[in-house]
Each structure stands twice: as structure tokens, then as C-alpha cells.
Design a protein that fits this description.
CATH architecture of one domain in chain A: 3-Layer(aba) Sandwich
Oligomer: heterodimer
CATH topology of one domain in chain A: Rossmann fold
Number of strands of chain A: 12
Strand content of chain B: 15-25%
Shape of chain B: globular
Number of helices of chain A: 11
Radius of gyration of chain B: 21 Å
CATH class of one domain in chain A: Alpha Beta
Structural class of chain A: alpha/beta
Distance between the termini of chain B: 21 Å
Largest interface: A-B, 39 and 47 residues
Number of strands of chain B: 12
CATH superfamily of one domain in chain A: P-loop containing nucleotide triphosphate hydrolases
Distance between the termini of chain A: 40 Å
Chain lengths: 323, 335
């Protein structure tokens, strides 16, 4: 394989992305100055609690909603500069899998129509026969039996519906997929089936994932690198194993210790329970946004804006005290 | 022996529940039995459609009218069979002696009544000590304080509260009448992990302080490991494995379904390249498989599994309902 610039460069680079929403009460900082990159064939996990901006980030990366500021480089090119026509072609390479397989599929279309739709819209094939072949191939790839081809989504269970969403996303041969909580609506045994499928597909098709979830055990299982979000900011970012072994930011520590572990050992451990609730993302105060809930809080935490600092190779933390 | 009987709060014997619709009969609960002592927490684990919520609703006799029916079995609460008591008796029991925390805090509060009004409702309906209005209001303040909500917020409405706070209000409502038994149906599923940790530790604390019993329905084995004393694993309306927390999390022998459940969760401590999920799907409750209901998905199924109902194998407090262990030589084996 020839070593080109292309291979070293991350597939997706997110640079200083900001997304603010106007509300009657002020500016809602959904995503605030986040920079991330995802290498080819790897998975970046995005974790955080509800309202931290993880879904907004996923949508901004695919340019489904325009960011307030920043750049999104795909293969080194800023997709925010693309015109409509170019963007349309670009969208074939980047797809999304949605959280709720019950509401993200059109209830009035059959499985065939749902999977074929992107192929038809983008005029990929010139004959119906080829489209049929492709649809059947996609169904086989994601493990949907051929007999479901003329069924409607309501006839199928959550796991199978999520497979349809996946087949649809994959039908365009994308390079990059944003998975927005793809397994959180599913039962554990089905969840494991879908996670295995996603990992197998990554191996065989060389896909790059941005995996958004609130479930830390899932994110550890599937990701190479993890970014922890808190009220629109990335507070810690590290390779998956490093993050779980040596969490540095107080928020990450609390997040990790909050996971109930299915073993007897966990009963004896007195867990750290964080006081208070997530603060309002509308017009946030300068400084550390976790400070009001943090037990190490010192007045200087609120004095100035913080930046992500590299404390160890590839391990970035945004904290005045531990960074 | 006498002591043992005194301590028993709830006993369910061979409970069967069906939902009858015009088209089908759904066999939701198929002959389950369990006991709960005072002060104990029982965890009921299982996937969607295993019959966990139906079990809870039958205890409170809240099954949908005309559709859901208890066809067989007894629910004995404090020596009284709840399947036989009158509806007006049942109303006294609900909320006062047994109360329920529902899954979704966002929809289980009334949006047009203030928090105080909603908490007062339960207290007024079960005002057995004839307390006056001020005493009841004082009780509301006390309950809010107990669950960590400042009492000056009691005049606010549910939409002004965050998810975790709403769930705490729901818990305060359930606790208001000092019930003997609390049934919590997925109390933290709709919450974030840090808020979940807050709510769980609060529930554990309150349970110990007030000496209640609890039935915790969940699909999360982690929550069970942390909060329960006993566990029952349900599959297709049956309890396929039950035992003390040590039996389920500490022993080697398990029902193949329980093994599958554990294999499906990514382990945080050990790195596994692949999960080992259970193949296939839950069986259709209108048309359950013969023999062992798990056999079509079971990696260790034998011929006998599709033909005969599996035996109940006992190892002390640990019971497994599976043919596999009979072969290994222990019908009613005790150790």
C-alpha cells in the first residue's frame, strides 16, 4: 500500500465547532468550541448526559444543521464550503443511524422501499434489477431475512428495525457513519447483537464511526477513543482504555463511578454521589461549567475560560486543578 | 418457625395472567411463585415482554379492565389473598400499604396540579389518623425534605422540575403513606447515570430508614447487584432462575438464559472483543413454544427441552428451571 497523505490524515476533523440556538431566554450554548478528529476505520465515542449537546454535535458534523462557527473537514476538505450540489454527493459518503428505530422509519413504506430510497434518490443504478440486487445484498449484510422484504416496519421488532436503518445507511457505501444512540431503545440481548454487527461491518467495510451514547459500558466496548461532553464542552478526551483506567476530570470520575456494575463487589463500594443537577446551558457563566457540582471547586475555577490541555500523550483534560 | 411466618409479607403462588383480546389470548404470566419477607428487596429481571410489569400490576390489581385477567393463583399479602378482596378494600391497600413507582416520571405526574396538591391527594385519601389540613401539609414538607427537594418549590408544577427531581417527587408520593411494600417499575430507566446513582442511593437509604420491602423491576443487572437481596429472572412469563444475590452473582451454575443476559452486557472490567448475545428473539406470547419456553434460543437445547416442561432444580435457596441440570444429576439436590 502506498503511503499517502490521505492515509495519515484523519477522515473527519472537527475544528472549533460552535452551535448556539436562540431562545427567548438567551443564547443556548449547545456545542461550544469542540475540536475532535476521527481516524479512518476507527470509532470515536461521544458520551455525556442528556442535554450535553452530543446529538447536536452529531447533526452538525453531518451538516444536517449549520454550525454557528467552525470547520468540518472531511478528507481534508471543509464541507461547510460546499455548495448544494457538491454537498449532495458528499452525503452519500456520510450517513446517520438514529436512536429510535420506532420513529425513524417511514411507517407507510415497506422494508424494500426504505432501503431502496437512497439508491433511487441518488440515481445510483440505471435499472430496477440492480437496485433489487443491492437491496437484497444489504439485507443479507445486516442479517435481515429475505422474507421481510415486503413487510412494514410495524410488523418487526426493535432489533430488526434497527437493522433496516443500518441497511439504509449502508446502501450508499458510506465511509463515515454517525450512530446516535443506536442501541439505547433495545433490550440487552438485542443490543449485543447490533453492537456485534456494527463491529463486524467496521472490520469488513472499513467504516469510521462517531458513536454517540449515554451508556458508558457500550461506549467502552465499541470505541477506540472517547470524548466526554458536559454542557456543550468536551471536558476530557482519551483513548478508550486510558480513559477508563485513569480518568482525570472530576466529572468523568463521577460518571464512571455511577455505572452500576453487575457483580457482588460493587455492593460494598460506597459510591460518590454528585449533588445537584446539570446547570442551564443558556448563557453559561465563564469558567468551568461543572464547578457548581464539583467537590474540588475553588473560586478560581470560574475566573477564566478553560482550554483542553494535553496532560499525557493523547489524553486531553479541561480542568484548572487537574489539567 | 413462628418468627418466619411473621416476617413474610408477600407470597405469590402459581400466578397466571392472560390478556384476552378479540384476536388472541396473550399468556403474559405463566405460573410464577415467590415470597418476600419484611425489609427485603426482590429484583425482577428480564427483557421486554417477560411479564415483569404484568406481575407488578396484578399485585395491585391494576390490570387493564376486561382484558387482563388473573386466571389462577394467589397473591397473599399480610395473610390476605388480594385476588379475592373487594375493590373498595383494594383501594385502601393501594397507596397505603402497597404503592408503586412507575417507569416514566415525565408522564406519571399530573401536569396541571402543583406538586403540593399531588402529594396531598394521596395523604387525604388515606387519612386514617384523621389529621387536619395543616398536619397533612406538614407531612408534605417532610416528604419533600426526605427526598431532597427544597420545600419552597412545592407550589411549582411538574414542568418546572428536571427528570431526576420529578422522579424524586414520584418517590415521595409513593412513600407518603408509609407503605409496607413498594413496587418500583424501572424507576431509573429514564434518567441519566449520575442522576440514577442519586435516586438509587436515596431509595436504598429510605428503604432502610423506613423498613419497607421493595420489588424492583429492572432490566439492568448492575442495579440488581447493588440494591437487591433476592433476584428472580423472568423469561416469557416464567421465573426461570431465582435465588439470593450471592446465588445469582456468585455461583457458577446458571440457567442458559441468565448466562446469555450476562454475556450481552459489555463488561467494564474485562475486555472482550465480542459480546456473546442470545440469538433470536423473545417468543410470541400468543403462541409460546412447547416444553421449555427458552429452547428455540438456547445454545444447549436438547431433544427433551422441546417436549417436556423443565424440572425445578433446587440448590438451597437457588432454583433453576432447566433440563440441563437434571441430567447432571440433581433433582431437588440440596447443598
Amino acid at each position: 500500500m502506498k503511503k499517502t497523505d490521505d492515509n495519515e490524515r484523519p477522515l473527519v476533523e472537527i475544528i472549533d465547532i460552535k452551535k448556539y440556538f436562540k431562545t427567548p431566554f438567551g443564547l443556548l450554548h449547545a456545542v461550544d468550541n469542540i475540536s475532535l478528529s476521527i481516524s479512518r476505520g476507527k470509532t470515536l465515542g461521544i458520551v455525556g448526559e442528556s442535554g450535553c449537546g452530543k446529538s447536536t454535535l452529531g447533526r452538525v458534523v453531518l451538516r444536517l444543521i449549520p454550525p454557528t462557527d467552525g470547520k468540518i473537514l472531511f478528507n481534508g476538505e471543509n464541507i461547510l464550503d460546499y455548495d448544494k450540489k457538491k454537498m449532495r454527493l458528499m452525503r452519500q459518503k456520510m450517513q446517520m443511524i438514529f436512536q429510535d428505530p420506532y420513529s425513524s422509519l417511514n411507517p407507510r413504506k415497506t422494508v424494500y422501499e426504505i432501503i431502496a430510497e437512497p439508491l433511487v434518490v441518488n440515481c445510483i443504478f440505471d435499472s430496477k434489477r440492480k437496485i433489487n440486487e443491492r437491496v437484497l445484498f444489504m439485507m443479507e449484510t445486516v442479517g435481515l431475512a429475505e422474507r421481510f422484504i415486503n413487510t412494514y416496519p410495524h410488523e418487526l421488532d426493535g432489533g430488526r428495525r434497527q437493522r433496516i436503518g443500518l441497511a439504509r445507511a449502508l446502501s450508499m457505501n458510506p465511509q463515515f457513519i454517525v450512530c446516535d444512540e443506536p442501541v439505547s431503545a433495545l433490550d440487552v440481548s438485542i443490543q449485543a447483537q447490533i453492537l456485534n454487527l456494527l463491529m463486524d461491518l467496521q472490520d469488513s467495510l472499513g467504516l469510521t464511526y462517531m458513536f454517540i451514547t449515554h451508556d458508558l459500558s457500550v461506549v467502552k466496548h465499541i470505541s477506540d477513543e472517547i470524548a466526554v461532553l458536559y454542557i456543550g464542552q468536551c471536558v476530557e478526551r482519551a483513548p478508550s482504555r486510558e480513559l477508563f483506567q485513569n480518568p482525570i476530570h472530576p466529572y468523568t470520575k463521577i460518571l464512571l463511578s455511577s455505572i452500576p456494575v453487575p457483580s457482588l463487589k460493587s455492593r460494598s463500594i460506597q459510591r460518590e454521589v454528585v449533588k445537584g443537577e446539570v446547570t442551564d446551558p443558556i448563557n453559561p457563566k465563564p469558567g468551568c461549567r461543572f464547578a457548581p457540582r464539583c467537590k474540588y471547586y475553588k473560586p478560581e475555577c470560574l475566573s477564566e475560560e478553560l482550554e483542553l490541555k494535553e496532560v499525557k500523550p493523547n489524553h486531553y483534560v479541561m480542568c484548572r486543578l487537574f489539567g | 418457625m413462628n418468627n418466619e411466618i411473621k416476617n413474610k409479607l408477600l407470597e405469590i403462588r402459581n400466578l397466571k395472567v392472560v390478556y384476552e383480546t378479540d384476536l388472541d389470548t396473550i399468556y403474559a404470566v405463566n405460573g410464577i411463585s415467590f415470597e418476600l419477607d419484611k425489609g427485603q428487596t426482590l429484583g425482577i429481571v428480564g427483557e421486554t415482554g417477560a411479564g415483569k410489569t404484568t406481575t407488578a400490576l396484578s399485585i395491585l390489581r391494576l390490570l387493564p379492565q376486561d382484558i387482563g385477567k388473573i386466571t389462577e393463583g394467589n397473591i397473599i399479602f399480610e395473610g390476605e389473598d388480594l385476588t379475592l378482596v373487594s375493590e373498595s378494600m383494594m383501594r385502601k391497600i393501594r397507596g397505603e400499604k402497597i404503592s408503586m413507582i412507575f417507569q416514566d416520571p415525565m408522564t406519571s405526574l399530573n401536569p396541571v396540579l402543583s406538586i403540593e396538591r399531588q402529594l396531598l391527594e394521596a395523604l387525604e385519601l388515606h387519612n386514617t389518623q384523621n389529621r387536619d389540613k395543616n398536619q397533612l401539609k406538614a407531612r408534605v414538607d417532610e416528604m419533600l425534605e426526605l427526598v431532597g427537594i427544597p420545600k419552597n418549590r412545592k407550589h411549582e408544577y411538574p414542568h418546572q422540575f428536571s427528570g431526576g427531581m420529578k422522579q424524586r417527587v414520584v418517590i415521595a408520593m409513593a412513600l407518603a403513606c408509609n407503605p409496607l411494600l413498594i413496587i418500583a417499575d424501572e424507576p431509573t430507566t429514564a434518567l441519566d447515570v449520575t442522576i440514577q446513582a442519586q435516586v438509587l442511593s436515596m431509595m436504598k437509604e429510605l428503604k432502610e430508614k423506613l423498613g419497607m420491602s421493595m420489588i424492583l423491576i429492572t432490566h439492568d443487572l448492575g442495579i440488581v447487584a447493588e440494591t437487591c437481596d433476592k433476584v428472580a429472572v423472568m423469561y416469557a412469563g416464567e421465573i426461570i432462575e431465582s435465588g439470593s444475590i450471592e446465588d445469582i452473582f456468585g455461583r457458577e451454575k446458571h440457567h442458559p438464559y441468565t448466562v446469555g443476559l450476562f454475556g450481552s452486557i459489555p463488561n467494564l472490567e474485562i475486555e472482550t472483543p465480542r459480546l456473546s448475545p442470545i440469538d433470536g428473539l423473545m417468543p410470541d406470547p400468543t403462541n409460546l413454544p412447547s416444553g421449555c419456553k427458552f429452547h428455540p434460543r438456547c445454545p444447549e437445547a436438547m431433544e427433551i427441552c422441546s417436549e417436556e416442561l423443565p424440572p425445578i432444580i433446587e440448590y438451597g435457596s437457588h432454583t433453576i428451571v432447566c433440563h440441563k441440570f437434571k441430567k447432571e444429576g440433581g433433582v431437588n439436590e440440596k447443598n
